[in-house]
From TrEMBL:
Cellular component annotations (GO), alphabetically ordered: cytoplasm
This protein's name: phosphoglycerate mutase (2,3-diphosphoglycerate-independent)
UniProt xrefs under InterPro entries: Alkaline_phosphatase_core_sf (IPR017850), BPG-indep_PGM_N (IPR011258), Metalloenzyme (IPR006124), PGAM_B_sf (IPR036646), Pgm_bpd_ind (IPR005995)
GO molecular function per UniProt: manganese ion binding; phosphoglycerate mutase activity
Binding positions (substrate): H143, R173, D174, R210, R217, R300, G301, D302, R303, K377
Keyword Ion transport in annotation: no
Positions contributing to Mn(2+) 2 binding: D24, S82, D487, H488
Enzyme class, spelled out: isomerase
Domain annotation BPG-independent PGAM N-terminal: ranges: 102-338
Species this protein is from: Kipferlia bialata
Assigned keywords, A-Z: Glycolysis, Isomerase, Manganese, Metal-binding
Record GO biological process: glucose catabolic process; glycolytic process
Bilayer-spanning residue ranges: none
Length: 562
């Protein structure tokens, strides 16, 4: 199939660029949520609201679905997330996502006969090695799902390894902030049943909070990965963690987490210190040894790539931290995380195939494209946007810019994050006259949303509003067009129904507003005949605004040209 696009008969003509502005996590509150928790409404962002009001008046506004089936998730009420949201916006198509593909491979058993499994779990078990699973323990379904872990632990037990060890990372970010012990109890019950039914000893060996151990992304803070590598592989807790009476080594995960909660009541699960489970002689239960299999059960790539490199890179080819004595283990990811870079080398389930993305078409049409975000979301607007592919489509006509983030992701004290720097760069890109299509992700509403701090979220939205004023002015000055939207909700639900802080994403719809100062009624936002207009439509709209018809297999455009 060719990548050439048919031009529209009556394209709109603008001098400036088409800009896609993604306010990450900027949703519209659903009627079921707690109105007191809507930090976006509370912030009353005048510029954004004014722009939306004008778009509504002109027929250039709609709401788009950004969760569940609209973004390829297994269940209709799955909340949205950055990966699937950016995939949808950048691919113009809704593909069955990793969450769904892993479910299918477990249900039909194909995972257990595929090469990924037989060359790691089965191979280790055949030589009486042990099998380790590590990853995010929750049912958030953004990076992982506890049911999938259960399916794999049961599958591993059928191979009769000498033991199974699970290294859970507690969540509190995609699920309620201190719900970790609920999932630990579920996991303990699963492991107990497996041990009783199969005779294969299965137990929790180590763990920690996801944002403190293992799950860094985009190279923002490698010490998080190091901490996780040490507790999983070496059964070791760093000295620096042993403060205020925290021991690091406990007889069970429950004991460790309970003690951490008593000592550090202000910490959410996501930041729980690492722990290692020990036997009666204080020896770690399950460090990784030569010949063991290790499975990363997170299916989403952004926070799985760095730890995968730590496991896979040979001696001498890894300089992010000292890995100590590296065990010769058989490593697999549950899914392929980066098809371009081939990470991981071995995986248990093929990833969604996301092809013929917007960037490929625009590059083929020689449209010059610019993408920008700060580190925490840089890969969202590049790697996820381009269908989980790192790197450029065509470096000669594209430029991707990363504004380096503060390494700490718990930014409630500085909700402005790097939005100022992003704005300066974005305005310069718009005003340079060099680009046909500019896309930007503002990380703030989502990242601050994950802290559960309502006041910080309000402050962040107010600040973003100031930024938007300058961005809109630049678009107006250059005679361009801007689409304002989001990848999923978050900031509009900062409290649950009981008034407790809420850290996770939502199932809310997102705004889609077009700002077009040179507008002369040439087109309208029109969703007639589209059953559930979703954010995947944005790729088609982008093509239309640039003068092209979208390919037939793309989601329908919500724009009708007059
Ligand atoms: O990884 C995270 O920070 C959360 O689990 C999901 O947030 P994101 O989908 O907005 O990145
Ligand atoms: Mn997001
Ligand atoms: Mn998020």
């Amino acid at each position: 199939m060719s990548l050439s696009l048919s031009p529209l008969a009556n394209p709109i003509k603008r001098d400036g660029p088409v800009v896609l502005c993604i306010l990450d996590g900027y949703g519209i509150q659903s009627p079921k949520a707690n109105p007191e928790g809507d930090a976006i409404v509370a912030a009353n962002p005048e510029t954004i609201n004014g722009m939306i009001a004008e778009a509504k008046e002109r027929g250039l506004y709609t709401e788009l679905a950004a969760h569940g089936h609209s973004v390829g998730l297994p269940d209709a009420d799955d909340m949205g997330n950055s990966e699937v949201g950016h995939n949808a916006m950048g691919a113009g198509q809704v593909v069955a996502q990793g969450a769904k593909l892993v479910n299918v491979a477990l249900e039909d058993g194909s995972m257990f006969s595929a090469n990924g499994w037989t060359s790691t779990v089965k191979a280790a078990a055949a030589k009486k090695g042990r099998v380790h699973f590590f990853g995010l323990l929750s049912d958030g379904n953004i990076h992982s799902h506890i049911d999938q872990l259960e399916g794999m632990v049961k599958g591993a037990a059928r191979e009769s390894p000498s033991a199974i060890f699970v290294h859970p990372l507690i969540d509190g970010r995609d699920v309620p902030p201190t719900s970790g012990l609920i999932y630990i109890a579920k996991l303990e019950a699963i492991l107990k049943a497996v041990t009783e039914e199969t005779g294969v000893p299965a137990m929790i060996a180590s763990g920690g909070g996801r944002m403190h151990c293992v799950m860094d992304r985009y190279g923002s803070n490698w010490s998080i990965v190091e901490r996780g590598y040490n507790h999983i592989v070496h059964g070791k807790v760093d000295e620096a963690e042993l403060v205020s009476g925290y021991k690091g080594y406990y007889t069970s995960a429950e004991e460790a987490i309970t003690h951490a909660r008593e000592l550090f009541p202000e910490k959410q699960d996501q930041f729980n210190p690492p722990f290692v489970c020990v036997d009666a002689d204080n020896k770690p239960l399950g460090p990784v040894r030569d010949g063991d299999a290790v499975v990363n059960f997170n299916f989403r790539g952004d926070r799985a790539v760095q730890i995968t490199k730590a496991f896979e890179a040979p001696e001498g080819a890894f300089d992010h931290f000292d890995r100590g004595v590296i065990p010769a283990c058989l490593y697999a990811g549950i899914l392929e995380y980066d098809s371009e870079a081939g990470i991981p080398k071995t995986y248990l389930c093929p990833p969604p195939s996301i092809t013929r993305v917007l960037s490929e078409y625009l590059c083929a049409a020689e449209k010059k494209c610019y993408a920008i975000a700060e580190t925490h979301k840089y890969g969202h607007v590049t790697y996820f946007f381009n269908g989980n592919r790192s790197g450029y489509i065509n470096e000669e006509i594209e430029s991707y810019n990363q504004i380096v983030s503060e390494p700490n992701e718990m930014i409630e004290g500085h909700p402005e994050m790097m939005a100022e720097e992003v704005t300066v760069d974005l305005v310069a890109a718009i005003e340079s006259g060099k680009w046909d299509f500019v896309r930007v992700n503002y990380a703030n509403p989502d990242m601050v949303g994950h802290t559960g701090n309502f006041d910080s979220e309000v402050r962040c939205v107010k600040f973003l509003d100031q930024c938007m004023k300058r961005v809109l002015a630049a678009v107006e000055k250059m005679g361009g067009v801007l689409m304002l939207t989001a990848d999923h909700g978050n900031g509009e639900e900062m409290m649950d129904k009981k008034g407790k802080p809420k850290t996770s994403h939502t199932t809310g719809a997102v705004p889609f507003a077009i700002f077009d100062p040179k507008y002369q009624n040439e087109y309208k936002v029109d969703t007639t005949g589209i059953e559930t207009p979703g954010i995947a439509s944005i790729a088609s709209v982008t093509m239309n605004l640039l003068g092209y018809k979208q390919p037939e297999f793309y989601e329908p455009s919500v724009v009708t040209l007059e």
